[in-house]
## 1
Amino acid sequence: MLLIRCPYCEEERPELEFRHAGEAHIARSSEMTELSDDEFEKFFFVRQNPKGLIFERWRHIHGCGRFFNAARDTVTDKFHLTYKAGEPKPEITLMAPAEPAAWANREPSELNVDMPSKEGGR
Amino acid sequence: MTETFRMAGAGRLTPAKAVRFSFDGTSYQGVAGDTLASALLANGVHLVGRSFKYHRPRGFLSAGAEEPNALVGVHRDAARRTPNVRATVQEIYDGLSAVSQNRWPSLAYDIGEANDLGSPFFSAGFYYKTFMWPKAAWDKVYEPFIRRAAGLGVAPDEPDPDHYSSLYAHCDVLVLGGGAAGIATATAAAASGARVILCDEQAEFGGALRFETGARIDGKPGWDWAQASVANLKGRENVRVLTRTTAFGYYAQNLVGLVERVSDHLATPGDQPRERLWQVRAGKVVIATGAIERHMVFADNDRPGVMLASAARTYLNHYGVAVGRNVGIFTANDSAYAAAFDLKKAGVQIAAIVDLRDDPRGAVIEEARGLGIEVLTGHTVTKTGGRLRVSSIAVAPNAGGAARVIPVDALLMSSGWTPSVHLFSQSRGKVAFDDATQRFLPGQYAQDCVSIGACNGTDTLDAVIEEAYAAGENAVSGTKVLRPAATTSENWTGGMLGAAPGAGPDDTVKAFVDFQNDVTAKDLRQAVREGMRSIEHVKRFTTNGMATDQGKTSNMHGLAIAAETLGKPIPEVGLTTFRAPYTPVTFGAIVGHSRGSLFDPTRRTAMHGFAEKNGAVFEDVGQWKRAWYFPQAGEDMHQAVARETKNVRRSAGIFDASTLGKIEIVGPDAAQFMELLYTNPWAKLEPGRCRYGIMLREDGFIYDDGVVGRLADDRFHVTTTTGGAARVMNHMEDYLQTEFTHLKVYLTSISEQWAVIAVQGPKSREIIAPLVEGIDVSDAALPHMSVREGKICGVPTRLFRMSFTGERGFEINVPADYGEAVMEAVWAEARKHDACLYGTEAMHVLRAEKGYIIVGQETDGTVTPNDAGLDWAIGKKKTDFVGIRGLRRPDLVSGGRKQLVGLKTVDPNVVLEEGAQIVATPGQPMPMKMIGHVTSSYWSPNCGRSIALALVVDGRDKIGERLFVPMPDRVIEVEVTGTVFFEESGERLNG
């Protein structure tokens, strides 16, 4: 079970309290009727589904009830950042994937094993 | 029986504490602290099971959780029959009753053993190839046959009477595994005051120190140091130690699942839970899971009496049990020599040590010879003799040559140690193959954890202790803690992977790699020959490592044999994925208390008791219990519904509509919000009036509907479908919070706050009139589709004049706490006017008679308002609402869409089946062209015939035409009609 930080409650809460709500930063046009078929298709149907960093919406449905945005790595499920609805999409360069894996919060040198070499040996 | 193999003076159990138990009906004596395995071995019992596929006799391979062979049933009573219990893990208690599995008629004479003779036919992939055809035979012949013949234990057929507890825990450091490394790291971490949890799957801490007699830590024998250290940890308030607790799953963000076996080892569990599930969120996790010894792969290596060297040491050094009187050793490393020494010193004869290595060097060789043990280097065991127990081994030089037969009554084997990287791998860490030592070790970490000790490839005891203390310190403050000195005389390195010489290639021998799934070296070679290249394919084709032991002893051998056959180095072939659970976990532990009435909440309306008292039969609608119909004496459902539906149209009926979703929308922009969320125009709806609203998704399809009352300029009382209440609220909140953020509106769910009593029928006004205060209920003052606030029976009400029956009707909303009392009062009045109580079934029939749709029944997420004949509900002048653009999509405006129509069967007595498909002409070649389907179908008592609603392609153009509904036994002819079957004028609504 993931821990997710609600940017409104300002604390980490268990995943059970939240509901996923699809990709973020897809604004509904104030002139919906003016959209061409292609534009509507992009707005409603086309989603990125990336392997890696995704910006997505969550709702703290069993908590404060607020919708918010999150930047998550779909490979590791690591939440890089959560932020309030309406705030600008964060700069992607702030979150270049870290090595080793996204969850490691210690340097490889701090771990008590040697890092595998490129050949796979120790 | 007496324990003839219990060695006086050996082991740590107290012989005075005798325990009686039975196996396959025979009574035995053991000692408190025994496992079922050690107690049976003490009585000379090695044969405990039959193998999965070939029904070969099997004994104990190990002394721990990795056991693939010794699976038994443990029976407490009729409902407590646990299958597939590892005898090496189950502790005995007075009265324990265990039975062997997968044998008939008895363990010693098993008919299924014929499978062993026929084994050339049962090679890898046998089932895939043989039972393909005919397809129909799978269900009736092949699968039942295979399931009976190849199987494990039998699951109990009664509900589980035990209870299971579940709790969450948090700690700074979670230590998985309580051997030397785990104890040391917990000691170091606990010194700082950090919250530490230390768990181990065994009944006592100590890990390999249980048998490693050569270990000395802090000047004491290793085992004594372990017990003293754990006693010290138990005394600390910041430490929790858990025995009999397996870390079975490593999940995201250092969440680790532990299962604690609380009472399976007790003669009288009392009211304790059977097991306890711990979900631990840890700051840091230290993995100290040790290593598992591998067996040797050679012909007939599965006979009872053939076991791991470390297992025999455990049985001797901990349980005081000798596994035989004349024991052979087959090894490729030094560690197995210690087993020979321990046994020899305890007075057991060692027949020979067969060492696969051509020229092994080191102190152990000299020590063996010094003890007078014959050491055959450069030799291999080519096969074993015996039937229900090993009686001899055939030994030959590796290079080939004549075999010599040596009598033994047990054979101990070791091909080296496999680090237990299971939990590390589950944490999404990446393992790396260490060429020098030929093993996979933790490589790249993915979570905040660290591996120490044998599971990290650390081989010497002093290095393990140093590493463990360092990890414990680093996990917390980093402050140095004084380490104890540690030494051992034993060497755990070395060994070999794959098949030993003499294990084949040979089409007749069985050199087992995976004992539990009966996978041999030959099967693995064959898999490669038949084209499997990926280890994942080899695994699935042979089922190597796929049994409940998850290949703890077999995976590395299987991989090495596949790699050798492929001619590739091991790391290029790759390792199969480690998945949770590490060892089998009961459903009971996972489910915990969430069973029976606690499985899912049950929602009851405020008037539930009233309905019960009046004889309602209830149906489940989501989590709700709803009154379905109210049978009177002698009535079945059909008769009750017929009476209720006629009664409503004749005089009146009372219905509990409380489950409808209700949302209050309040604020200066409430009307504007309604305009955006519903297709209808709302701005000009006067306070006190109602409107039927349709809500779309952005794609233009109907999402929900309901009657909305405007209570004031800035206040709407919205109703939703019963099932849609939560998602409509979510949908509204989503738009309000993220798209229409400029609107000043509050949304409040009021579904639970207002109980709703529907009073429907020509007499409805007479029924409520005497009870209502402050509201003029005349048709002129309170016309159809209006709402007033006032009082009824002295309590506040929102009184809706509305109808879901086509009759004059009211829906009385009262605060839920008054629901039952007001219901009683209304019912008392209603009975004066020949009214009835009616349930959801009659409600459905009444609304269908009028052609009113139910979202989710007439609609399925692909129906537009136009499809449903509800174009009138779309505000034509509106410039925006959710779904406005979707409605203009080419597919939604083109012809050929399914439209809602009525269907009347030509034979009025035939009631169509809901979901039945509709075709234009009968007798078409199959597959017929389906042009629609039945969405609702009932017998209509008021029309005196069957009625149905259906979605039919261009249905409104087909009104008056005949269509056909093909059923398995006949074709039903129907006429397409409008959707209103009863009183098309609608005048009855107005009274």
## 2
Amino acid sequence: MSRRASGLRAWAIQRVTAIYLAIFFTILLVKFMIWPPADQLDWRLWVADPVVGIGFMVFIVALLFHAWVGVRDALMDYVKPIAVRATLLSLVALTLLACGLWAAQILILARLA
Amino acid sequence: MKFRIYRYNPDADTEPSMQEFDVDAPRGTMLRDALLMIKEQDETFAFRHSCGEGVCGSDGVNVNGQNRLACITPVADLKEPVEVRPFPGRPVIRDLVVDMTQFYQQYRAIKPWLIRNDPLPEQETLQSPAERDQLDGLYECILCGCCSTSCPSFWWNPDKFHGPQALLTAWRFLADSRDQATDERLDALEGPYKLFRCHTIMNCVEACPKGLNPTKAIGHIKNLMLKHSV
């Protein structure tokens, strides 16, 4: 992310992903309150549905970007030494990347099963 | 009335302390009057003040945890003991007097004047009443610093984040139909620090003694920036 883009673009990403997360969370809440999956097989079948699967994929990407901007902002505010900040940002980026890949693996395996 | 006043003389004291004072505050006493009475009791006590009517913006202090202008704060509204401290986050010069250099640097950085590229007209540059209305709630700022020094983002990055006061003024010029430097002003605000350290905490709105809304102005700048980039 360029120096120039890291202000407006990060802010816009945070806003757009927040809207998607709010809508998706609401849908999930309604789904689990009204039509909760009966068992694990039911769960897997539901997630294997292409629309639900893509919805979850976008949800995970949105969540990771949203978390990245939020954590980046907090580190920029509170961590002044550049070396410490760079290390922490790298750790956060790697953790988020690992979480994203893990979630993608779960979704892909659910569809293959 | 009981007052607890922050005292610190960096040349003589090793650390700041709170000193208690008793003041006879008749009905209608403003905090500035009370501080002047305290100064009569102890002439070494230092604080800034000037007009006494909320216009000059000199006597901003932190009262019971909230930034206010002392001259327009009735002491009757304050809970005792009234704790008076300097603006948070600013280096203390002495007692309630703080160094506002960074605050003014941020103000200067947003170029707080009209920029025209066209040749100046022979007479004044006209505005419609509707265009003039856009400046209401913006031009009234008196630079007291109550907003910026109550902003956590300004505490953490006073050298990089413009702060609510400077950003309110930035929007005052962006919103002015006579100004012709919109793109330059928006470009100057880009990057992660100058504008985007605002996390809409809104302490500035609560602190402004003029009832202005810097958070709203900052939102307008962000939206305008977005509009200019898509």
